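User: Teach me something about this protein's shape.
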Amino acid sequence: MYHRGMKKRVVALFCILLLGAGCFRWSNDQKQVDEGEGNMGDIPFQDFGDFISSEDEIAPPPEDLPLPSEDASPKPGEVASISENVVVSSIVERQILSNPFVILGRARAFESVVNWRVRDSRHKDLASGAVMTNAPDMGRFGSFRVRDFFDEAPDIGEGYVEVYTVSPRDGSEQDKVSIPVRFDESTIPVKIFFSNLKEDPNLENCERVQAFTRRIAKTVNTAEATMLELLKGPSAAEQSLGARTSVFPGTALRSISITDGAATVDFSKEFTYAIAGSCHVQAIIAQVNETLKQFESVDIVKMKVEGEDAELQLQP
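Assistant: First, the predicted structure itself:
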C-alpha cells in the first residue's frame, strides 16, 4: 500500500538537489535529525541496529498465489512437517539451491507467520527470515512465497532449507520441515561504493565514493544482489578502512530492472529518511549510481521510492 506521506518525501528529497538544505519538513513517523548546516558527517550510518525497525522484518503475504484447498494434505513431491501444518512444495531433496532461491508452500500458523532459514551442514545460517501466508482467517491454511539471496556465500557444498513456525506459548520452533540441499560454492567479485572518512575526513567532496570489493554467491541476478549488498552498509572490516554509508539503515530494495542501458531501482520509504542537506543527497546518489554503473549493461540510473517515479535521472 502506498504510504500517505511518500509524495512529500520524494518531493523533499529532490527539492534538496535543486535548492540545497532547508526545504525539509518531516512527519512524525520519520527518523529525526538536526539538519544544521547540512554536514553529512553528522550522521555516521555504521551502526545500523540503532535505526532498523522490527516492523519490517516479516515479509507481507503473497497477493498472487491461490488459497490452498480445504484438503491441504501433502501431495507427491512435497515435504511436510509431522503435523502437516507446514508443507514445502518447491524444494526437493539434494537439489542445488540457486541464488536467489525460491521457497513455496502452504502453512497453518499462528498469526499466519512462517519462519525460514538456509543453513550449511555446520549449522551456520546463510539466510533467514519470516513471511506471512495469505490465509483468510485464523486456523486456515495459506500459501507463502520466499524469494531471497544468500546473506553470505556458502563455503561448503551441503546444507538444509528449514521452514517452521514459532510457538506463541514459549517461542520454541515447531512444525519444522528440514530438507537437505546442495550449494554451488562459486563466488563472484562485485564492487560496493561508500564514502571514505579516512581519505576525506571532513566529507568535503560529497560525490566522492570509493569501491570496496565483496565476493557474493554466484548469481545471474548480479545487479540485484549487488544493490542488496550496498543496502547492508559497510562491514566491520570496511568501517576500519574508513567506509561509511549515506543510505538510511533499513532501506529495502523493492525491485530493480535493466532495460536498454537504464537501470530502474525502486526503494522502500526509508530511502528518504534523515536527509541532512544537499551534500548528503549527492553522496547517496553517488553510492547508488557508481554501484550500478560498474555493470556494462547500465548507462544511467533511475530511482523510485515505493513505486513512485522520482523523475530523477542519474547521469554518467
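Now, about its shape. The chain has two domains: 6-54+186-314, 61-183. The radius of gyration is 21 Å. If you'd like, I can walk through any region in more detail.
User: That's plenty for now, thanks!
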